[in-house]
# Entry
Amino acid sequence: MDIEAVSQAKAKLAKAKKALAAFKAATSIEEAEEAWSDYLLAVSTLYSKLQQGAKTNGQSQGWFGRKKKERKDDPLLRYLHYARNSDEHGIERVVATTPHNTWKGRALKFNERIDVKLQAADRETGQWGPEIDAVLAGPTLRPVRAHDNRYSDYCDPPTTHLGSQIIYSDFVDGIAAAAFGYLEQMISEAEELASRAIAK
# Structure
């Protein structure tokens, strides 16, 4: 693995984190959509840098081949890939706006979130169930089916990543945040491959 590719991939991960922060700070649909596009581009380019860097030897190529398979098989990673292709090559929007909500008579602002407790009653017994944590959200962006018209293919928004449920998968920033641990680990593995190559 080429160490320069790892360095550039780290820079792209930093850009993805900056884009997510910009999304969370957005006060309009336009700002949020721009941040989401920036996030998708940064993640896509991170993969491209590591793919180029993996061409240095067979071990790195094999490693990156496994990462590409994981991206194909995992619902979250696959969706990010498709959403980027749709955003870049298509004309369909890769997000939609969630409905407006009110809290105590006040309309929630764009991207505003309020933690709430919900409790449901059993329809037959009338007994109240346990309280659960939830979020009441003002208008924000939610992921929608991503199309890749070059191959007449599509990918639906993910609800899981590596077998675990994604918290707040109905929100774009929820799925964006869910990918960071994986991307950081991938860069760490690439860095280890680069260190071994330098040591030889």
